[in-house]
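Exercise 3.2. Students should predict the tertiary structure of the chain below and write it as structure tokens, then compare their answer with the key that follows.

Predict this chain's 3D structure.
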Amino acid sequence: MPAPDEAAPPRTIHPVMPDGWERYRPSVGRLTGFFAELLPHLVGQTFGSGGEVWVAVDGDAVDGLLLLQPGERSATVFAREAAVAEALLAGRGPLGVFSELPLGDRPFERLAILETELPRSDAVPHRFAHPVRLAAPPDREVLLQLLREGLGAVDERWFRPLPPPPERGFVVERDGAIVGTAWVAVPGPVARLHSLVVRPRYRGLGIGRDLWEARARWAEAHGATRLRVEIAEENDASRALARAAGMREIGAIYRTRWV
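Answer key:
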């Protein structure tokens, strides 16, 4: 007599504690086309700044990962299907959500993912116009204010300690004050550039290019073989910096307002 059909167990969504992350680490890399090498760092950064990590499990397989930053009202979701991403986000919001695929019919902003290999062979040679130095603990409050002015909500726990390993921040000073900052994470062979902010009155003076070059050189000196960055399509200034640095577009992510 044939055995009766057994219904597959339903998808479950549950939180991951820091001491339980290693259980899921081997299986979540397949959920992303571009961030597999950076994913352990992004998860650690989420835990370190007081965020939440959630997984969607279908039977025995992990088919979704959510990194939630309540303090910044933002989230990053990794899934191969929009329905899984939306299940992870259900009941949450308002949030700014980053994902590798559009979420339903909601309007979104497209960010290009750009990359270059190190050492760079096709970058425009650069001569620094301003001294650039590493961010230091006494800079903390000024940097927090500057990043909030340029990027919006920033959870101050991300700066405990400063710099948060394996991150490094760089600053440029003019007229006795910090007027620009930018950050790089080098958790392995792929370095991620992020959080470039220059005060409006000091833009157009080459500060952004100096900060870009300082990060690229630091990343290469510390073992990175590739540089990667995400840039909004309408951010012409940063896209020009990326092109001058020899970067090419390899894909895209999407930023969606989730309410």
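Discussion points: Helices lie at 21-28, 39-48, 82-89, 140-151, 207-221, 236-244. The chain has two domains: 12-106, 114-253.
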